[in-house]
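This part of the workshop introduces the protein records we will be handling. To make this concrete, we reproduce a full record directly below.
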Amino acid sequence: MSRSAITTHVLDTAAGRPARDMPVRLEFREPDGWRPIGDACTDADGRVSVLGPERVEVGDYRLIFDTAGYFGEREHFFPEVTVTFTVTDPAQHHHVPLLLSPFAISTYRGS
């Protein structure tokens, strides 16, 4: 199994554990709109290491997290979280973690 050029990790900060089984989609911006390039679910550790290609091109990407699917019937404010970012060096690995609770989100460029 190869590692994708773009990966993510979701932590449920309210529960104090990884967000397991959350659907995540990776998309690339083209001149006429967004094109899906990968779909996956977080593993038991809240990680997605295989989501798209091993190499990506320069451009804008977005990760779409199905937080409503993850929270289910639990009360929450964000049904979906979209994190849009720009790849300027396709030789680098891009790790984009999400820290999540029912009423707050935070993200950053990881390593």
In short: The mean pLDDT is 95. The first strand starts at residue 6 and ends at 12. The beta strands are 6-12, 17-18, 23-30, 33-41, 47-48, 59-65, 81-87, 94-95, 98-101, 104-107. Residues 18 and 45 are 5 Å apart (CA to CA).
